Amino acid sequence: MARTEEGRKAAKACGVAFGRPAKRRDDQKEVVHELVKAGRSISSVARTFDVHPATIYRCIKESRSL
After folding, report:
1. Rounded CA gap, 11 and 27, in Å?
2. Does the domain spanning 21-66 belong to CATH 1.10.10?
3. Nearest-angstrom CA–CA distance, 42 and 52
4. pLDDT tens for residues 9-64?
5. Cα separation of 6 and 20, whole Å?
6. Residue 19: half-sphere exposure toward Cβ, Cα within 13 Å
7. Domain segments of the chain as ranges
């Protein structure tokens, strides 16, 4: 157990990313916001980015809070 913890700390110090990779990138979030603002439907934007419509709503909510 201690060796595992040491290895994780060493990896983090070297900049290794842990966890699930993000499906949405920051530049995609901006495009999503612009498309919705331009009048495209939530479902069509979701199909464009191959995500669930709830993800699009979350992107919009996050961009409003920034």
Report:
1. 27
2. yes
3. 9
4. 999 999 998 888 876 677 888 899 899 999 999 999 999 999 999 999 998 888 77
5. 21
6. 6
7. 21-66
